[in-house]
TrEMBL record:
Family: Belongs to the class-II aminoacyl-tRNA synthetase family. Phe-tRNA synthetase alpha subunit type 1 subfamily.
Subunit structure: Tetramer of two alpha and two beta subunits.
Higher taxonomy: Bacteria, Pseudomonadati, Pseudomonadota, Alphaproteobacteria, Sphingomonadales
Name recorded for this polypeptide: Phenylalanine--tRNA ligase alpha subunit
EC number annotated for this UniProt entry: 6.1.1.20
Organism: Qipengyuania nanhaisediminis
Gene this chain is encoded by: pheS
PANTHER family: PHENYLALANINE--TRNA LIGASE, MITOCHONDRIAL, PHENYLALANYL-TRNA SYNTHETASE
Positions that bind Mg(2+): 259
Length: 366
């Protein structure tokens, strides 16, 4: 009898004094576990006489349930205290300034590509892509540059060392024009696409990097003429540079994949020693800057891509995206685009919130 009273008292005191969940758990095992002391008491019931058992059983069971209740209550108390402690240590004072953490930015090339997609989407163009590792046929042959064509030499092509099972040598595409072929082969006509992406040429100085970006434009439809090309480029450049006074000068040129071919210059004016696009390039203090190559798609190219050139005509153009970015946002060294210098990225990068929209003007505010 006294034994039970002492056991109860000592058990309850020890439960009350348990410091943490682990100590409480080992106490539970010690008292109520299979080998525990109170469980041991339960086992003695079997050996008792029925009368003895009748008087002892309720006391022992009472002890067991009191101890179990005390442990459960203590566990709740410890859990609550732990939660309090964590809440106290994890408070966030919203009146303090934000912690300084590294911030990313959108590269001007990506920003300009988004602007281009936005402008051309409004004109009904979708965005097409093609592989950067191209085969000779798509990059040259189907664009009317046969194996012996001198224009191939001007492209400073990076070739892969091995030939494939069909004897083809793969290369890094030298322009986005192979996407013209891929789009015509894949979707037939009519077509209205732009194809922005990386291109590669073995060339490196202040204005040339071995990898740079172009955007290709292609329209294939019925009765397309040079006027459509001029209007499209004018509309695009006015929207892109956000000026109504963009003036184009079209000059005869040569590309194997367009006929006739047209080089497009844009008029600029001198503003405090800086060349700013806009205005008639022939006016005093003004000039012309060569900006892009274009032309009516050569009928041989339309044939190569599996379409009938008597039924389908179109125009194509290609522009350097990096150059567009430099002209619009005022960078002067192309190499810095690809150095990954954090200071340059902080200065010229855009906030992800600066999504180009036509309604707000495609230009970003950074
Ligand atoms: N692919 C040409 C280049 O890289 C540009 C171009 C594209 C010209 C489409 C005409 C038509 O220089």
């Amino acid at each position: 009898m006294t034994d039970l009273a002492t056991m109860r008292e000592s058990a309850l005191t020890r439960i009350e004094e348990a410091q943490d969940a682990a100590a409480l758990e080992s106490l539970r095992v010690e008292l109520l576990g299979k080998q525990g002391s109170i469980s041991g008491l339960m086992k003695t019931l079997g050996k008792m006489s029925p009368e003895e058992r009748q008087s002892e059983a309720p006391k022992i069971q009472g002890l067991r349930s009191d101890v179990a209740d005390a442990i459960a209550a203590k566990k709740d108390a410890l859990d609550a205290a732990e939660l309090e402690r964590r809440l106290a240590s994890e408070t966030l004072d919203l009146t303090l300034p934000e912690p300084q953490s590294p911030k990313g930015s959108v590269h001007p090339v990506s920003q300009v590509m988004d602007e281009l997609a936005e402008i051309f989407a409004d004109l009904g163009f979708s965005v097409a892509t093609g592989p950067e590792i191209e085969d000779d046929w798509h990059n040259f042959t189907a664009l009317n540059m046969a194996e012996t064509h001198p224009a191939r030499a001007m492209h400073d092509t990076f070739y892969f060392p091995d030939v494939d099972s069909e004897g083809r040598r793969m290369l890094l595409r030298t322009h986005t024009s192979p996407v013209q072929i891929r789009s015509m082969v894949k979707q037939g006509a009519p077509i209205r696409i732009i194809a922005p992406g990386r291109v590669y040429r073995s060339d490196s100085d202040a204005t040339h990097t071995p990898m740079f970006h172009q955007v290709e434009g292609l329209v294939i439809d019925k009765d397309i003429n040079l006027g459509h090309l001029k209007w499209t480029l004018e509309t695009f450049l006015k929207a892109f540079f956000e000026r109504d006074d963009i003036v184009l000068r079209l000059r005869p040129s040569y590309f194997p994949f367009t006929e006739p071919s047209v080089e497009v210059d844009v008029g600029w004016q001198d503003v405090n020693g800086r060349r700013v696009l806009g205005g008639d390039g022939d006016a005093p203090g003004h000039g012309w800057m060569e900006l892009l190559g274009s032309g009516m798609v050569n009928r041989r190219v339309i044939e190569f891509a599996g379409l009938d050139p008597d039924e389908w005509q179109g125009f194509a153009f290609g522009v350097g995206v990096d150059r567009l970015a430099m002209l619009k946002y005022g960078m002067d060294d192309l190499r810095a685009f690809f150095d990954g210098d954090q200071r340059w990225l902080d200065h010229y990068g855009f906030s992800p919130f600066d999504q180009p929209t036509l309604s707000a003007g495609v230009g970003a505010s950074a």
